[in-house]
Amino acid sequence: MVDESRMQIWGAGTTRTFRPIWVAEELGLDYELLPIGPRTGETQTLEYTTLNPKQKVPYFKDGHVRLSESIAISRYLIERYGSWATLSAPDCIEARAKEDEWVCYLYGELDETSLYVMRRHGDLKSIYGEAPAAVSSAKTYAEKHFAVVDQHIQKSEFVLGDRLGLADIVLMSCLDWAKAYGFELPDGLMSYKSRLSERPAYRRAISINYKQS
Description:
This protein has nine helices and four strands, in the order E-H-E-H-E-E-H-H-H-H-H-H-H. The chain is α+β, with helices and mostly antiparallel strands.
């Protein structure tokens, strides 16, 4: 039975469900995970469709707040529950704009335009159709942008500032996805990935998210 009084995250087993779970683990939040899958039929039930007509995961509830989309949920958690000792939100307009720049870039060019195209026409080709040329082109495109990120990340421990932030959450999820697809990542990104993979909250989130799939 769902405990309506607790913070709830619906969805597990994907890159996008991983993001809010990792943020929640970093912040030490008490939440209930309802590990429904994206293609198990669970998102198409009347009960879930009433909550989220998009029929997608993740979905999130915290009191009166209802959100879908992994980045929106993650940003909300950071801004509502983060602190300078954990994940912190930008403290001025300029810093928020810089974070938005990186988050939009990483999500737009790596997640949506590259890695998801590979998933759509590779892992999910039975649904969306096989398109080897599209998969190959998407991989080449992703490699180009991983090289750009690699140059940037060699200058600092995190994407922005001196602590983990939303851009790191998005980037790490894309790096995990890329490694699962056999990418050979540049040395700087591999070092970055190895370092952040040692975070206890990251390891907990990996276990929580993917053991449900």
